[in-house]
Design a protein that fits this description.
The chain is an all-alpha fold. The chain has two helices and no strands. The mean pLDDT is about 95.
């Protein structure tokens, strides 16, 4: 698996797990927002890795 695919997977798992924990009131709202923000940052990082990988493939 490529690095950016793993980062996308990690971001998705974080969001789903945080949503499930928030719905069951295990975590508080600020913690949920923090995890959600981390997953957004991971998605941006994965996107930049994907662009670099595609650029290398085209060369």
């Amino acid at each position: 698996m490529k690095t950016y695919s793993l980062l996308y997977l990690l971001a998705t798992v974080l969001v789903v797990a945080a949503a499930a924990l928030r719905m069951t009131h295990v975590i508080e709202r600020p913690v949920f927002y923090l995890i959600f923000g981390i997953s957004i940052v991971l998605s941006f990082v994965a996107g930049s890795f994907k662009k670099k990988a595609l650029k290398k493939e085209l060369e």
